[in-house]
Fold this sequence. Notes:
The structure is a single chain. About 35% of the residues lie in helices and about 20% in strands. With about 350 residues, the chain is α/β, with parallel strands linked by helices. The longest helix has 29 residues, at about 255-285. It is globular and about 70 Å long. The two termini are about 25 Å apart.
Amino acid sequence: LTRLTSLTAQTVSNIVSELQSEGMLLAHAPEKGARGQPAVPLSINPEGGFSIGFHVEQHCIIGVLLNLLGETLAQVTLPVRYPTYDEARPLILQVIEDFRRQRPAGRFIGAGIALPGPFNVEGISSVGPTALSGWDGPDIAQRLQPLAGMPVLLENDATCAAMGERLHGLASEVQNFVHLFIGSGLGAGMYLGNRLYAGHWHNAGEIGHMTVIANGKACSCGNQGCLERYISIAALMEHLGRDTDQNLSAEDLDDPQLSSAIDTWLDEAVPALRQAINILESLLDPQTILISGFLPEALLKELIRRLEPLSRSISSRADRQYPRVQLGSAGSDAVAVGAAALMILAEISPDYEALLKMPL
């Protein structure tokens, strides 16, 4: 630890003692080595803290309870329809109360809430099939905190999905990746240099409103040819002849009568997504790009299959360890898990800029 942190042995010892007194670390039986004092193994105490994560989505609210190791202890899914802040607040507070009852003596670190972005952008945040009314106030987290009885943070759902994939998916050993999350819209979570990149206003990765088709389809944001007009659940619903705010899970996508519409959507979505992947690779040089979301797994696999051949980019190299594009594996609760994990990281991870005395 002294070597990794450049702190003195005494400082490390003091920190470890403090973490033990707070119940976050466990000391085990000393192990006698070849010389010197017996080493005392330490481990994170799973019960040393708990975090709650929520994914507030257009058609459901997913809540999870994590321990300090990032293990899911409980999960709940509540059906909703485009929940406003006022509608979602009592549901979230009830889940928090239920989770706290499961660990009455537990130390709750906080609650992370993942929402579809972008945040607080005039003309984009409050329009279109991704918009959730009442969530765009700058003080939502501060208003929820006293009601929840614990710290609360809000984060972009694609950023949380990337963290969930890092913890429990294919990206557990990857230091540079992009995670494309397909929901009602399309967002990209970016894990770069072994750290999440959220952007100054927590809107990094909002590629859904990146123009990919000149003079293309009109978008609710006022532009034309935005990426999520071609690759999103809303775009698919449009091809199925449904309202874009309808719940995809209510559709039987195995119905032969829908196969032609799905094929037409894929034919339109693939070239747009292929172009976006080329841009992301050229800009960020990731080890891999993961794709997941609320599309059925079979449809996600077919989408990825049809992306080949990918456009040539700086990622076209023979010494690759990972595929350029692959299906995410963290599961449908990855966003909520990522939101809860961000609360744990905020509690236990060092602020590198503060340590280095760099301006924020």
